Amino acid sequence: MAVWDPTTYLQFADERSRPFFDLTARISSDAPRRVVDLGCGPGQLTAALAMRWPTATVEGIDSSPEMIERARDHAGTRISFRVGDLAEWQPEEPVDVLVSNATLQWVPGHRELLPRLVSAVAPGGWLAFQVPGNFTEPSHQLLRELAADPRFAGHTSGVVFPAACDAATYLADLASLGCQVDSWETTYLHVLTGADPVFRWIAGTGARPVLQSLPAAQRTEFEIEYKAALGAAYPEQPFGTVLPFRRIFVVARTGR
């Protein structure tokens, strides 16, 4: 299993946080009792949920021990964190707000989990999730093409790449489960600075399993070629390097 590095992930914390706040702003819950963040990562956004709902008990769950270790810096009397698998998660009692930010795309066949996630939410409660919608962009196409090169394929062939659907598909899925659904998409134009900014961005997320599958020498060769290809696809401008990033948002309220 590939390992998450919280420090690498948090290099672009502001840019990665924007979709979370755009998502949760559409949750119209005044005073939920129980809030769960599935795929909480390093925990700073889970802590923001506790600040928004000051009477709620908030739990963050992530499959990465490294992320949970960092997240526990934010733990308190109302907020806790634990290691857990989203694909197998089941609460002891229904929750009022269930949030999953940029996580479901890592679970193969995650649409099949939606009925169980909805059933985990109390009647009249909220399920909100956001997933990337940029898997056809050069950043990911170049990654898959290079990973399939015979020089690297022996190590990368077993890597599972993240995937997601469009907003209309999730809307139909959740509406069929009796939810009232608000779904939309947004393309952010992130302006990144510094050396190899797109590589540094994707190395902390989408490219992580591929890079970690390679032995050290081959990883260095792969990174040199991948950085060059990304530099050509996302040229530096006088003001920085623009990374267009499409995101898919879904906020669903369960039946009363």
Search tags:
Rossmann fold; 8-stranded mixed β-sheet; 256 residues; alpha/beta; globular; 8 strands
Question: How would you describe this structure to a colleague?
Answer:
By secondary structure, the chain is an alpha/beta fold. It has a single domain, classed as Rossmann fold (3-Layer(aba) Sandwich), CATH 3.40.50. 37% of the residues lie in helices and 25% in strands. The chain has helices at 6-9, 13-24, 44-52, 65-71, 114-119, 138-147, 150-156, 167-175, 197-203, 208-213, 216-233, and strands spanning 34-38, 57-62, 79-83, 95-101, 121-132, 180-192, 236-237, 240-253. Strands 1, 2, 3, 4, 5, 6, 7 and 8 form an eight-stranded mixed sheet that branches. The termini are far apart. The mean pLDDT is 94.
Describe the secondary-structure layout.
Elements: H1 6-9, H2 13-24, E1 34-38, H3 44-52, E2 57-62, H4 65-71, E3 79-83, E4 95-101, H5 114-119, E5 121-132, H6 138-147, H7 150-156, H8 167-175, E6 180-192, H9 197-203, H10 208-213, H11 216-233, E7 236-237, E8 240-253
Parallel strand pairs: 1-2, 1-4, 2-3, 4-5
Antiparallel strand pairs: 5-8, 6-8, 7-8
Helix pairs in contact: 6-11
Broad CATH class: Alpha Beta
Tally of DSSP helical segments: 11
Which consecutive residue ranges, at least 5 long each, have pLDDT under 50? Answer: none
At the fourth level of CATH, the homologous superfamily is Vaccinia Virus protein VP39
Find the structural class using helix and strand composition: alpha/beta
Cα(first) to Cα(last) distance is 40 Å
Q: What is the percent of helical residues?
A: 25-40%
The major sheet is characterized as: 8 strands, mixed
**Under the CATH scheme, which architecture would be assigned?**
3-Layer(aba) Sandwich
Order of helices and strands: HHEHEHEEHEHHHEHHHEE
Task: Round the Cα radius of gyration to an integer and report it.
Answer: 19 Å
Predict the CATH topology.
Rossmann fold
Strand runs, count: 8
- How would you sum up the global shape? globular
Q: How many domain units?
A: 1
Beta percentage is 25-35%
